[in-house]
Amino acid sequence: MSASHRQIPGVNAERTRSHNRQMVLGSVRAAGAIGRAEIARASGLSTQAVSNIIADMLADGMLREHGRRTGGRGLPVQQYAINPSGGYGLGIEIRPNAVFSALIDLTGTTKHSHRTELTNNEPKTVLAEVAEHKFRALQDTGVRETSVLGAGVVMPGPFGATGIQNSGSDLPGWQDIDPQGLLEGALHLPVFVENDANASAMAERISGVAQGLETFAFLYFGQGLGLGLLQGGRLVSGAFGNAGEIGHIPVIAQGVPVALESCVSRLSVQAHLSAHGIDARDMDDLSRLYAQSAPPLLEWLDTAVQPFSAAIGIIENLFDPQVVILGGAMPDAVLDHLIDAVRLPDRSVSNRADRRQPRLMRGTSGRMTATLGAAALVLNQAFTPMIAASR
């Protein structure tokens, strides 16, 4: 079960303290540099409470003094900013054929990344590989284990035994086990488990094009096609962590109802190219083919427009996002082509005159999107209050 959809217990003193720290840290991150009184106004906390929290976080190393701001009456005001080395998030992405990892600091800057091939994706093999990735990240950066706030781990859904298993984009053998417990045992860290689309959405919020956005959708191209949703800065995971399995919804393609990811996904483009005798194993192959205007790839793009346009309309009308973002393991040029070719529906709640963002845009995190998103899950826990604020 993913961390984001656990039941939140009643508020007690320790949870209130944690919540207030999240409020202060989130205010500092949003502002870049900010004084105590401004934090108090932004968070609804008293100035004395803010002062106590800042003192604690200065001692912890999560905040640093950032000079004084002059202007107006009175003495210059002390400013505070995030200390990049005050904490780290470890991100692990488990794919059917590989493990990726990234270590990011509190500002979202990548300090280390690594990739290894998997000989098999049985839990025992994967857990050993994950532990090795953590060891390598700490060894290569010199970061102390006590400075790592936790590990975000992403893997393709669905989670649990469902009616859409064995689609070619899931992780066989993991449906009937507790991945969080096993991963915490291997990593000796708090672990947040999410699907790759949700984690990718979080990466865009922490360090990508969705910075400053609270409610948006992220259409993730992995092997299949997933959808990450953020509402008010928090992930929408569903009852069992499987919200956003949009690749399995039926759409019309060339007059026939089909599953969306059968015509709009990495799996579908690779299958189409394979039928024309072209082996496209990775993003570099797809980039090369697009640069060459390879007819089979352009043909696939043409056939993808209708179902892709329908999917955007479904996302907009169901979730009313500020924007729909495309990203993941698909070349930028291919995603830009889809954005240019899409027929955005007029009958959509997103078709409005007062928009501040385009309805559709490309993300910036590239092929490491889900891995960085896994690490961003950890930072989001530090920056985003998980209980309602008391005003």
TrEMBL record:
Gene3D superfamilies, per database record: 3.30.420.40, Winged helix-like DNA-binding domain superfamily/Winged helix DNA-binding domain
Q: Where is this region: Disordered?
A: 1-21
Read off the SUPFAM superfamilies from this record: Actin-like ATPase domain, Winged helix' DNA-binding domain
Question: Record's superkingdom?
Answer: Bacteria
Q: Name one Pfam family in it.
A: ROK
InterPro entries linked: ATPase_NBD (IPR043129), ROK (IPR000600), WH-like_DNA-bd_sf (IPR036388), WH_DNA-bd_sf (IPR036390)
Which keywords appear in this protein's UniProt record, sorted alphabetically? Kinase, Transferase
A Gene Ontology molecular-function term?
kinase activity
Q: Family membership, please give it.
A: Belongs to the ROK (NagC/XylR) family.
User: Which protein is depicted?
Assistant: Sugar kinase of the NBD/HSP70 family, may contain an N-terminal HTH domain
